[in-house]
């Protein structure tokens, strides 16, 4: 548990560039500030010659060696022993002698028995069993099942799902494939897949590389997969030939037909998608009609429920292909990790929520069990579609004030369009030296002369645009967007809160379901929701944790069936466990059908407010009652 908490501390600091006090970190992890200080000492000891965590008057922050410390595994630790023990069991078809193994690992037989119990806990879903007879222990199961266990260990080693060859070598053993061979293998694989006209998913390729490394290692130990019943053909045969050729060239291993077809299937279902030149009709030709119809229905439902513009033919077809591949992965329990899962959930909660809705519909129609990483891939599809359909009227408008002198104003406008066209739209140019400042009604005014009236929307720039000018304009545009977003949020929130739907403090053994029922009962008492809504909120939580930041959870049901929109607030001080982390604020939201547009405003901006650590601490420390909570929330929103 201590190692896990140390790693959680490192993860928190790596995600937050600013300093954090021991008290703040203690709240986030659920320990005392004194424990945080001991964790910092232990983490820094992992990298004796470096700085994993820096200390200062303002607290702690991640150092240059933080990522390396997160990956560091100390020899002789329970984690290291576990991997050594699993490798020994996998490499010994007849099993291992428990007493000899304990002596080799320099532990007692009782400690090794405890380690074997941990191995048994890893076997769920792998179709492997651990047998113990007197002094011998052995694993029973197919080669595919044994590789699944190796895959699980390797995933546990790889922080946030990112491919890490060093971590993989810790799982397979130091004598397994090295970076000098594997780097060129990956580069050539990506190049050859691209030459066949595929887009390559760099986020998913790490999983495939891991399986290729496992296959190479197992084949080198005479543990190849059995020959398949059917020969490869078409696209699969093309990929088989690539992997076979690159395996011999870079890894010095000759893979059999069983391994080659298995790896080719992984490539085709995890890391490639049709290229830009492939038409929707060509893509549809390879789709299962049932999958396409299910995707079409859930996309239409999500588009209507969340008022998002995603019901486009190209989006539906490409998502259907992804879901078809996902169904194949689900059959093999071969899930893909996504290193962007946490950041997608916290930065784009609305997009992630649409993805959860789609995932729920697919689960109902196709029976696909979805994990957060798989939901995140759907969120990437949704986000890509929304980005392409985003309208230009989301841009801020601007007027340039540049007194006329030859073509100076024209050059300036050209420079602004070229450098800031993604952020603002210039709709007018004033060339008078004495314009009517009050009459200029655009969002921003970019002026080369001192403005005649004060205001945050006026930005001084040079006649010849500089890098500093660009940064100033971007900063002003960012402040204006944030002010507007939070202004809308304040107007909405004041309608939805009430003093009789506020709770301060829970017991240390509180869990998600208990907190949801506690807050839900307050909304039921108001007549806003019924008990069915509470149950559906619990079901939604089981699909994917609603802890969208390190401090805030927003439980809610997928259906907007409340009689009116209302929010029940709970403050936890100290923090309580939620999902894989801990939170200090829980906002149970009940939305009505008539407030679908408000859902987007409240959901995204509320999460934004609670993504700032200082804001969270200010609210939690001072909001001992409802009046204090509302005052502090408004103060934070107003800046």
UniProtKB/TrEMBL annotation:
Keywords: Repeat
Domain of life per record: Bacteria
The UniProt record lists the keyword Ion transport: no
Chain ranges passing through the membrane: none
Cross-referenced PROSITE patterns: PRD_2, PTS_EIIA_TYPE_2
Span of domain PRD: 286-392
Full protein name: Transcriptional antiterminator
Record-annotated PTS EIIA type-2 domain positions: 495-639
């Amino acid at each position: 548990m201590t190692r896990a908490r140390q790693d959680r501390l490192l993860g928190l600091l790596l995600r937050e560039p600013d300093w954090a006090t021991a008290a703040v970190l203690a709240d986030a992890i659920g320990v005392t500030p004194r424990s945080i200080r001991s964790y910092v000492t232990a983490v820094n000891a992992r990298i004796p010659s470096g700085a994993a965590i820096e200390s200062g008057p303002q607290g702690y922050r991640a150092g240059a060696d933080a990522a390396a410390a997160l990956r560091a595994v100390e020899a002789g630790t329970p984690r290291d022993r576990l991997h050594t023990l699993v490798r020994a069991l996998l490499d010994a078809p007849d099993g291992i002698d428990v007493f000899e193994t304990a002596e080799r690992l320099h532990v007692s037989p009782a400690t090794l028995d405890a380690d074997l119990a941990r191995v048994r806990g890893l076997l769920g879903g792998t179709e492997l069993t651990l047998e113990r007879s007197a002094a011998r222990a052995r694993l029973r199961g197919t080669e595919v099942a044994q590789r699944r266990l190796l895959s699980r260990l390797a995933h546990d080693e790889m922080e946030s799902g990112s491919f890490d060859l060093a971590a993989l070598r810790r799982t397979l053993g130091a004598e397994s494939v090295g970076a000098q061979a594997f780097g060129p293998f990956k580069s050539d694989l990506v190049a050859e897949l691209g030459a066949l006209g595929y887009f390559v998913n760099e986020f998913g390729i790490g999983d495939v590389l891991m399986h290729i490394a496992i296959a190479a290692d197992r084949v080198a130990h005479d543990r190849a997969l059995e020959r398949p019943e059917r020969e490869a053909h078409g696209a699969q045969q093309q990929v088989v030939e690539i992997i076979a050729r690159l395996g011999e060239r870079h890894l010095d291993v000759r893979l059999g037909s069983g391994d080659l077809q298995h790896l080719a299937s992984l490539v085709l279902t995890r890391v490639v998608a049709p290229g830009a030149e492939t038409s929707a009709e060509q893509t549809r030709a390879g789709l299962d009609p049932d999958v396409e119809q299910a995707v079409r229905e859930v996309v239409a439902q999500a588009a209507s429920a969340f008022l998002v513009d995603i019901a486009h033919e190209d989006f539906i077809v490409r998502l259907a292909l992804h879901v078809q591949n996902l169904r194949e992965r689900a059959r093999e329990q071969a899930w893909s990790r996504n290193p962007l899962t946490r950041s997608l959930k916290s930065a784009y909660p609305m997009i992630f929520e649409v993805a959860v809705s789609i995932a729920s519909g697919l689960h109902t129609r196709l029976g696909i069990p979805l994990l957060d990483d798989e939901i995140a891939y759907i969120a990437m599809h949704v986000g890509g579609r929304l980005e392409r359909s985003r309208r230009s009227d989301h841009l801020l408008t601007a007027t340039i004030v540049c007194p006329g002198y030859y073509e100076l104003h024209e050059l300036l406008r050209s420079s602004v369009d070229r450098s800031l066209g993604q952020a603002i739209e210039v709709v007018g140019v004033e060339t008078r030296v004495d314009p009517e400042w009050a009459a200029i009604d655009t969002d921003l005014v970019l002026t080369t002369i001192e403005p005649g009236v004060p205001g945050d929307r006026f930005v001084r720039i040079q006649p010849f645009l500089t890098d500093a000018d660009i940064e100033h304009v971007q900063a002003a545009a960012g402040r204006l967007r944030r002010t507007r977003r939070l202004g809308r949020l304040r107007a909405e929130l004041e309608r939805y809160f009430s003093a009789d739907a506020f709770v301060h403090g829970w017991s240390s053994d509180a869990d998600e379901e208990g907190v949801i029922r506690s807050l839900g009962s307050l909304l039921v008492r108001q007549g806003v929701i019924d008990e069915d809504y509470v149950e559906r909120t619990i079901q939604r939580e089981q699909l994917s944790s609603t802890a969208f930041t390190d401090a805030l959870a927003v439980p809610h049901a997928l259906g907007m069936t409340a009689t009116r929109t209302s929010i029940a607030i709970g403050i936890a001080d100290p923090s309580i466990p939620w999902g894989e982390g801990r939170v200090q604020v829980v906002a149970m939201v009940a939305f009505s059908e008539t407030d679908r547009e408000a859902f987007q405003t409240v959901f995204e901006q509320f999460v934004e407010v609670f993504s700032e650590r200082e804001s969270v601490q200010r609210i939690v420390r001072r909001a001992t009652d409802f009046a204090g909570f509302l005052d502090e929330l408004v103060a934070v929103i107003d800046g």
